[in-house]
Amino acid sequence: MKKKLAWPRLCISATGNSPRELLAGARAALRHSSFVELRLDGLPRPLEFLRMIPELLAAKTPRSRTPILQATCRREENGGHFRSSVGEQFRILQKAAAAGCRLVDLEIESAEVTGKEAVAALRREAALILSFHDFHAMPPLQATARRLLKFPADVYKLIGTATRQSDNCLALDFLRSVMDRGDQAGKWIVFCMGQAGIPSRVLALSRGSAFIYASCPPLNSVRGFAKSPAPAAPGQLDFEVLRNVCRAEGLGPETAIYGLLGCPVGHSLGAAIHNAAFRAEKLDAVYLPLLASDLKDFRRAAVCYPLAGFSVTIPHKQKILRYLDRFDCAVRETGAANTVRLRAGRWEAINTDVEGIVVPLRRAFQLSGRQRLPASFRALIVGTGGAARAASAALRDLRCRHIFVAGRNSAKARKLAREMNGQAIRLATLPQEKFDLLIHATSVGMWPRQEETFLQPEQITAGTVFDLIYNPLETRLLQMARLRGCRTIPGLEMFLVQAARQFEYWTGWEAPRQQMRQVAQEKIREFQLRGEETGMP
Ligand code: NAP
């Protein structure tokens, strides 16, 4: 009987369009992990690369482990780049095994062409991963599993593409059902590709996946932050993110799952700071991007994962209200929720954006306890969207009596001003006005268009300017305000307060504010250098 094989739990996929590129990618990957997949199908002549394998097998790896190489030469019709025949594919995989690759990945479609004997012969050379990929949707999992199981293999890989959040649950439930059947435990790799499928990649190990794939962290060129190599598959996460941010190898069936509901979600800092906070407090919890456009499907998924709580961002902050069982007065006042927790099947929500504005203002104007803003205090809100609504609720909370609203759309500015007993004001008249506070709540000046500002210097006529944008850390508007002698409050202050409050609402623990601040600052700087999105990936 064949011995049951065990592998490290994270495999880095090395890709490249030339032998040089693949070699560099594989070498870089081996610096992080002893387990590396060689995507031979990107090469014009994969056989030529095989002579490099002895060099890779001699490479230094973390903790001096012997490198374990997997050879993959996926055919174009099955989602890879290899354009030659199935026979040639077999020849390459056989030679890769002879050269020292301990695993080979073969698509079920190729296995069905050659038949059981050829597949068994290949399996005698190296451990066999028999795989199926759907790059568009979720395949019927049970039927596809039966198709795979017709061929004896060491590992079965069944990968679909998530187009909605509940697809993740299909994959994770399948893994759980396999784990329950002892003979198949540890023999399956199941997850979803695509941005919406990221939760299944992170959680797969916790539900019994044999291992999962990661992309190589950025090569250290610019102060440790270069662009990441292209991932081998859509939604594939960087090894460092899987290992150190999400701690995918340490998650289990009891891990509390949190995340960010939104569309898009890749721009958020949430994953970095909440996962850092969970780690700092040694909580068995993880925070994931939950890309979703369909809230009904999201609700099904939330129950199925099950989620313990989630943050909410564009475009769901208002629409989420119809799914809530209970919410606080900040939600009622703004008509928007950004934080939800699930308690005994009930969805409870708060809006921490309001507190995120109140707390920095209290600090800046030295208002303690129940102290309010002076009766003569004049505040201007620029912008008319969700953040402007949170700003108006915050100002009312501080009993500000003179609130003005300006925006590019004057009808919207009038509407918001009416709702909060304030006054709409035309942008052209700003140079003649004087305010104690200006809160900037438009998205103008956000990365990647950080050179832009909605206001001209002469329109900045307030003693204090609070820009709600947090990426970049110092916006063009804040630079201009400082040059005009204003006191400035960066959007990061709001971001950190609202995130800390979320953490406390979910966990009941005091948030590790210092660590959260440090991670957020590092992440934004890294983002500026790499020019990539801040979240996952
Ligand atoms: P939103 O609801 O989409 O509102 C965006 C606002 O910006 C609207 O008033 C919009 O005007 C205006 N706007 C967009 N493009 C503009 C342009 N080219 N010129 C002039 N005005 C423009 O978004 P939001 O949630 O309020 O977010 C607004 C900003 O606040 C974003 O930068 C966001 O990152 C930031 N924010 C920060 C935090 C934090 O924690 N620091 C929290 C929430 C939001 P129209 O209505 O006319 O389109």
Description:
This protein is an alpha/beta fold and 537 residues long. It is 36% helix and 19% strand. It has helices spanning 19-32, 46-49, 53-57, 86-99, 108-114, 116-125, 141-149, 166-180, 198-203, 239-245, 270-280, 295-304, 329-334, 352-364, 386-397, 410-419, 476-483, 491-507, 513-530, and strands spanning 10-14, 35-39, 68-72, 103-107, 127-133, 155-161, 188-193, 212-215, 256-262, 285-291, 307-312, 326-327, 339-343, 346-350, 378-382, 402-406, 423-424, 435-440, 462-467, 487-489. It has an 8-stranded parallel sheet. The chain has a 6-stranded mixed sheet with strand order 10-9-11-13-14-12, sandwiched between helices. It is elongated and about 85 Å long. The chain starts with 9 loop residues before the first strand and ends in a 7-residue tail after the last helix. NADP nicotinamide-adenine-dinucleotide phosphate is lined by residues 353, 356, 383-388, 407-409, 412, 441-444, 446, 454, 468-470, 491, 494-495, 498.
